[in-house]
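User: My instructor asked us to take a sequence, write out its structure as tokens, and then describe one feature of it. I'm not sure where to start. Here is the sequence I was given:
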Amino acid sequence: MREHTVLGQVALGYSPMVDRRREVLATRLTVFPERPDALATPADAAALLRAFEVVWPRPQAPAAGQPARPLDPVAGGARAPGAERPVALNIAGEGLLEAVMASQPSGQFLIEVPAFMAADPAHAEALTALHRAGSVLLIKGRPTRPLAPEVLACFSHSLVDAGDDRRSDAGAAAGVRRVTTVQTGVHTAADAARAFERGAVAVLGWTHEEPVQKADAKRPVPADVSVVMDLIRGVDREEPANKLEAMLKREPTIAFRLLRYLNSPAFGLSVEVNSFGHAVMLLGHQRLKRWLALLLASSSNDPAARVTMHAAVRRGLFMEELARPHGDNEMSGEMFICGVFSLLDRLLRQPVAHLLEGVPVPERVRLALLGEGGPYQPYLQLVQAVEQEAVFDIREASERLMLQPLEVNAALLTALKNARQVD
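Assistant: Let's start with the prediction itself. The structure tokens for your sequence are:
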């Protein structure tokens, strides 16, 4: 990723687009140019899109005689199993957005267009050209005057902030036809529930539930979660493979999911892993522990936890990539576990301190998870700033770690690519 030097001229944030079933439909990637005049040419925009295409490849060309079908994640209901999740580009710079529109991006990029640009006749030709080429366009905000019919027809969805949601009024008067609504400004699960009750087809962003402060003795640990916790403890004690494999046989579905992770392209093994004992032999106890951490964070069967599991995987992979330039495998593994476990209390509905009594973690990880400092806490704060798409916090956290934008963005995009391979 670092060969895409254009990534050094932007700051990136990301968030999920989530439907009413709590399925993640797409990723929203927010792009903040480092300077208002940066990347304002079609050549610059094309270079940036090439970097993004490493994560979200161009869709396959349709068969002869078949029309091209845009990747619209919210148009057809539930996402089909195995279907690719596209990316919605939220470009926070008018010059760069104009350059992206002029570069004719391919169909996996959904393009957000601010209402003031949609209402400007100077952009009508570019918008209609994108629409004819099959791009999915989302209008962001409420136009101050009615849009021209040919421009209005280009937009499939409107992005409406929760504080500006007035769907009960005659919304068409503002120039937005009754297109489907994707709600922004969602800060809690209750906000999301209200958005869906009002008819939103999706929400952008997701605030995970507040940290759990008190253990719930009446809430039993699910059997599959208990097995993974036992395995992590066994791996930490470096117990023999046959004993660990006996634990795994208590939950065959866990064994299947673990082998699926280990054989994913993101793991990069040159041979197929066909048993847990084989995995221990190939990887050793410590490398295996990081994937058990991922398995633990994705063990919940609660549909409401899907978005949190999605985030936990990406946190772990992102923190691992941030550690990679140090060339310290132990640090990379610990940072991965730190990112994955940073949402474990929300997933298992138990306080962090209580969970850490049953799941062994290195001291540096424990300090970060408890908010008590240590070397990994600043990295976790950077990851959280990127998730919140908070550009000033991203820059401040990066500077505190003496990381350049290119380093942070390359790590983020590599993590998102690897996450797509294990989803």
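For the description part of your assignment, you could build on this observation: The domain at 223-422 is CATH 1.10.3210.10 (Hypothetical protein af1432). Try explaining in your own words what that tells you about the chain.
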